[in-house]
Amino acid sequence: MNELKRRKASLKNGNECLTDNGLNTNYNLLDFWCWSVSDLLSNATRGRFAEFIVGTAIGINSENLRDEWDAYDLITDDGIKIEVKSAAYIQSWDQKRFSTISFSIKPTKYWDAETNIYRNEPKRHADVYVFCLLKHKDKNTIDPLKMEQWDFYVLPTYRLDNYQRSQSSITINSLEKLTNPKKYSELKDEITKAYEEQKTTRRNG
Predict the structure, then answer these.
(1) For residues 195 and 127, is the Cβ–Cβ distance under 8 A?
(2) Other C-beta atoms within 10 Å of 118: how many?
(3) Burial class, 21, CB count within 10 angstroms (exposed 0-12 / middle 13-18 / buried 19+)
């Protein structure tokens, strides 16, 4: 019996056809992507899209595929580990009021994908957190593809470790007491600054 080792995903381009006994059907992988993730306002898709937005801001290589089980969401060429969180006032479903903005910051155990083992006590594994808020409040004109409709809050992880009110979540009001919102064009520099602050604190701590 073959060992059931981890199988890594390969990069797809969307042109791959669904086949039936070796014959192409009329549908391809792009059709599936359009069908499954066109709703960028849904919680699950928005979260992944926010990771992609931050990745584009730091110039990440899109051929390095997203790993569902990594201990953090992104890593830069310089080795900065980034955790991305997202929230929005507007959802795709019917709403009586805007959603309350809160982000999860709960420490987690590290899962080693190569060994399939959880390691160490729960902690925050990233160097930097980026909180992405889709701030637009007009349901008729909201468009997550427009970067001007987003605010980005960047913090070195140690500041969340020292956060007194809760170690599981943080509200937008509390977040704004710790840092100011940034634009998409400012993200890369802000992440670098937060990482330098994180390194200095670790070195001195």
Answers:
(1) yes
(2) 11
(3) exposed
